[in-house]
Structures are given as C-alpha cells and as structure tokens.
Amino acid sequence: MPKHLSKSKYLAAQSCLRKLWLQLWRPELQPEPVGMNKLIMTQGSLFGELAHQLYPKATLIDIDIRNLQQAEADTLAAIDEGAHTILEATFRSGQYRVLSDVVHRLSNGSWHLIEVKSSTRVKAQHIPDLAFQRYVMEQCGYAVSKCSVIYANNAGRLPELASLFVEEDVTAQVAAALPLIAPSLIPIEPLLEEGAECPPVVFSKTCNACDFRSHCWQGIDRPTIYEAMHANKIPELERQGIFYIDDIPADAGLEKPLSGKVRSMVERMQQQRVDINNEDINKMLAQLQYPLYFLDFESVAIAMPLFEDSSPWQKYAFQYSLHIQTAEGEVEHIEFLHPDKTDPSEAIAKSLVENLGDCGSVIVYHKQMEGGVLKALAKQFPVYGEQLRAINSRLWDLELIFKNHYRHWQWGTRSSIKYVLPTLVPELSYKDLDIQEGGGASMGWLEMVDAGNETEQAAKAEALLRYCELDTLAMVRLLAVVKAAVSG
Fold it and tell me: In which band, very low, low, confident or very high, does the pLDDT at 5 lie, cut at 50, 70 and 90?
C-alpha cells in the first residue's frame, strides 16, 4: 500500500530523502527516543495539550493514530456543523495528510492556521511546516488567510495561563514559502509508493544527529569532515570531494587556508597526535587550592511549568554529586537528590552551603552550567546568597584544559567529558549506566517523582545517583591523568 506524507515526514524529506524513505519503509531501524530526544518529544506534546486550554469552546478531534480516517471524518463533520475552532484538525489530500494544532474559522469564511511550538521563539523550520499544512488545507478546498505560531513565553508565570504563550503572526513568511511546496513534493511522491527504491546516502553535517546514522554510515571507520570540522569549513572541502580528515591537503591545496587552530587540529588528527601544553596546564593547576570539591549538578528545564508561580523553561537543579579530595589524596563522596515533585531549589541551596565549606577550589566541567545554577540560587534565596556567591567565585573549569591545552587526535573539535573520558580513563564508562546523558537525567527525575510505586521510584533514584556520581568521579580521575601527564 502507498504511504501518506505527514508534516513531520515532509520536514524530514527537506533535509534528506533517504531519511524519509527509511521512516516510511524501514521504521524498525529508527530507535525509540531516549534521553533528551524523549524529553523534548514528551514535553512538546504536553505543552500542546496545555495550549488547548486557551480555547475552552473549541472542538477537539480525538486522534487514534491507527485510524486517522476517522479523524478526517470527524474534522469534516465539525466543519459542516459550523465549528469555529478545531483542535487537532485532520486534513488529507491524496497522499498528503496533516494534523493541525489549531484551525479557527474567520468571519469571511477563510481559516486561521495556528501551530503550537514549545520553543521560546519562531524558528526557521516552523515556516515550511505551516506552509505544508496550508498547502494541504487549500488542496482540500479550505482557504487559509492567516498563519500564526504560538510559542512558550518564558516571562509568563502560572497560574496566569495566557501569560505562558505568545502568538506571532507569520502569514507573510508562510505565503512566501507556499509556492515552494508543490515543487518540493515532486521528488517525494515516488518514495511514497510501495517498491520505491531507497535513495543513496548523501553525507552531510546533519547526519550526526540523525536516528539512521549508524545504518547509513556502515563502513565509515575514519574521522570525517562532518564529525570533526566546524560547519563553515565544510563547503570548500565538499567542493573538492574531500570526505575524510586524512585527505585534507596542506593549505596550498585549498582555496582559503585553514586558520591556525583548525590547521593544528587537522594535522593532529592526521598524525594521530596528542598535544599537551605543559606550561599552560601547570599555570592552571597552580590555581587549585585544597580541599578540592568536584561538583556536578543535574537540572531540568521544560516548556511545561513545573510548579505554581513558575515559568516555561525555568531551570531547576534537582541533584548534585560532590567528591571532596584532601591534599593527602583522600576522597569522600556526598550526594543530594530531591525526592519529590516540589521545588528543589531551597533544599539544594541549603545542602550546598552545608557541604562546600568556606575554602578550596570547586572543580566543575563546563563552568556555565554550575555558575548559572549558583547565581540563580543566590538571587532566589538571599539568606544563602553570600555563601553561594562565594562558592561561585571558587569555580575552576576542568574542561578548559581539554578545550585548550590537552588535545587528543580522537576528539576533533570536541572537549565534552563524554568524549574525553573514554580516551583517557577507559575503565570508567557511561555505557553501563541506565542513564547516560543529561537529558536522560532530566527525564529520569520527572519519571521518578511521578512514579506509581516505591520500587519504581527507588530504581529511578538509584540510576540518577549513579549517573551523577560518575560525572564527579570522572573529574577526579581526569585531573589525576592531567597531573601525571605534566609531572614527567
């Protein structure tokens, strides 16, 4: 049977026709969303449902993804019965089908098409999304004269529902994009038919974030320009047919020479070299004061306001891990995890003040995160403000060493702990954990505080504690590797 083209699959096709084909005909190759991807999808849906409350008199179409023909029929019935506003309206023209968040009938009989997004602004990709919806609606015979995006207002606060949303008119942008829809469908239409041939792989920077990357990139066993080069350096290399980092020529073979830092990175990767700047590393190490406090937070920020008097995308630190190392090398571990669905901010502020002392370097990895949390807590709780600001002044960013002074050929442009740790301390691994990255931790806490029983809650808590503990243990071990490297 031929397939239908939804708005999400239409957008997938704009980045890669092969991705569309795989979504249509080999969906089993697409992994279930986990971590940050799962969080974004789940919270985006909930934010859309929250937006429904802006339209208390609207007609809501009950969507059963296994029977969208019924949703189409219910939409047509609602229109025929004179509904002014319809939520989750479903339109189909041939093999094109869209589920529109909100459609509102205007006084002249045309329609206002509204897309709800959990972002805090209109993004470029929202325009073709709306343009495709408008195209399908008009193919069905419904004139669309206005298009808008409703997005999250991070200055709004509960309990004022309307303050959480901003509606922006994008009619002009959608009208400009509309003539491009029909031509863009020409290469898509054959892929909807059963037996369609899978398009070839088109390698690009976007492959890095694609769910099908491991399927499409089989046999690619050396670093490529898409994994290790900044995007602005890629077009010229593509024009010369260069795919692997190993094949990048000296500057004489390029139209525009690479900058010194980029050229150094390329040569390091080509020569499989490790560059360690002892002098600059020792300057940084000389700043350290014992005891050393290795600190890592886990936080959550979602479009749905979590608590009363909170805003969309307000960040809450709900957990921290702390390894404390004395000058003699003794290490103590302390951990904090907020256990329930209440604002964790005051409890975490109090615990930090109790456990981080008055002196000693506070070692973090990527200072902006921890610094931002400490500043926000100090502002929110003046009673702890002076102590939290003092802690913030003691931050020492371990990532700067691996970003600037200790560069390994396997990392390319990257310096995050998820890349550095497997190379330098391979016996420590996130792969063995139930939670393996920050998005998974955020999702894990939300699932923990909503768990239906104590056993499930305890399992989620244990996974969170072990993940955060590894972050700070990793810093302890990485600092030891750095010291060993420069001591000789």
Answer: very high
CA dist., res. 104 & res. 82, Å (int): 11
SS3 of 236-302 = HHHHCCCCEHHHCCCHHHCCCCCCHHHHHHHHHHHCCCEEECHHHHHHHHCCCCCCEEEEEEEEECC
Given phi > 0 = left and psi -120 to 50 = alpha, else beta, which region is 58? beta
- What are the C-alpha distances in Å from 442 to residues 19, 111, 438, 439, 451? 28, 39, 6, 5, 14
Scan for tokens 């403000």, then name that residue: 385
- pLDDT, mean of residues 24-42: 88
* Closest to 349 measured CA to CA, from 317, 315, 323, 327: 317
What's the 3-state SS for 325-375?
ECCCCCEEEEEEECCCCCCCHHHHHHHHHHHCCCCCCEEECCHHHHHHHHH
Closest CA to 118 of 301, 300, 299: 301
Q: Tokens 């609207």 label which residue?
A: 58
Give the DSSP letter string of 89-134: EEEEETTEEEEEEEEEE-TTS-EEEEEE-SSSS--TTHHHHHHHHH
What pTM was estimated for this model as a whole? 0.90
Q: Percent of the chain scored above 70 by pLDDT?
A: 100
Cis peptide bond upstream of 159, omega within 30 = yes
Average pLDDT over residues 191-201: 96
Judged against a pLDDT cut of 90, whether residue 457 lies above it is answered with yes
Query: Predicted confidence band at 236 (pLDDT cuts at 50, 70, 90)?
Result: confident
Spatial distance between the Cα atoms of 409 and 330, rounded to a whole number of angstroms? 33
Q: Cis (ω within 30 of 0) for the bond into 291?
A: yes
